[in-house]
Amino acid sequence: MSDNAMVAVCDILGYSNLVKSSSLTELKDFHQENITNIMKSSIHHFGEDAGSPTPKEVFQDNLIGHTVFSDTIILFSLSDDRDGYRNVLNAVYRLISFPMFTPIYRYRVGISYGEFYHNSKRNLHIGKALVEANDLEKIQQWSGATLTEVAASKFEGQFPESNMLVDYEVPIIKNTHKRFHVVNWTLASHDPTRKEQGWMYREENKLKVPAYTNKGVEQKILNTEKFHTDICVQCKAARGGR
Asked: Per residue in 88-133, pLDDT tens?
């Protein structure tokens, strides 16, 4: 089919290090048991009510399109309407928030809207929206999900989708910042922390470390923690409103 779609490119941070420190069997298990399951549960658990769709309903009943290649998950709407867009946003919200508080891996996501063609039988996915989402994902220097202006406009005035987004100065390449609408993963239920830095789990060579040796990787985690400090209402209350 050929149409416009909401497209999300989701990339695992630090995947090359994981590959270097793991066997092929471990990597296979990692993908089969973790990535696929978390992707499915991303939509299944959103809203956490009896009416939430099951993974089978999501992936077999045309609720959302997806494909996985190595460390990248591509999610896309299968209907060019509010329901289609919302399914992608809901999936990204869970994909970002769940592993943030349960350290397995962390994602960086770009979301765009526009021309997109997919043919799942031929494993063909092309279009401007895919390129824009991929470019947006690559420039971010944190774990988070950022939307293009056009993608964000699709959720303007729509509740609860609009409440899931927040305007923020996103850290991007070359030590600069640019204001975007981003997915507010801090809304997810979690144990409040009074720490502004150092609360995120860090691991190298399968061992917990206080900070990453690679300064670039460590800065991405610090940027992610700063977003949490700036935005999270739950943890601001725990710190006495600061």
From this structure: 998 899 888 878 876 667 899 999 999 999 887 887 888 999 999 9
- Using a 10 angstrom Cβ sphere, with 0-12 exposed, 13-18 middle and 19 or more buried, the burial of residue 231 is middle
d(CA 62, CA 79): 8
Domain edges within the chain: 2-238
Q: Nearest 5°: phi and psi at 29?
A: -65, -40
Residues 2-238: name the CATH superfamily.
Nucleotide cyclase, GGDEF domain (3.30.70.1230)
Question: Residue 230 corresponds to which tokens in the numbers above?
Answer: 């700036």
**CA angle, residues 11, 71, 102, in degrees to nearest 5:** 70
In angstroms, what CA-CA distances link 166 with 30, 53, 170, 223? Answer: 32, 26, 11, 16
CB neighbourhood size of 57 (10 A):
13
For β-strands 72-76 and 124-126, DSSP reports them as: unpaired
The radius of gyration computed from the CA coordinates of the chain, to the nearest angstrom, equals 17
Structure tokens at 233: 């209402």
Asked if 99 and 188 count as a contact pair (C-beta separation under 8 A), the reply is: no
Write out the two tokens for 175.
């030590």
- What is the enclosing helix (H) or strand (E) of 101? helix 82-101
Integer Cα distance of 62 and 81 in angstroms:
13
Q: Tell me the torsion sign for CA atoms 156, 58, 43, 52.
A: positive
Name residue 207's beta-bridge partners.
Answer: 204
- pTM score, two decimals? 0.87
Return the closest-CA partner of residue 89 out of 3, 200, 166.
166
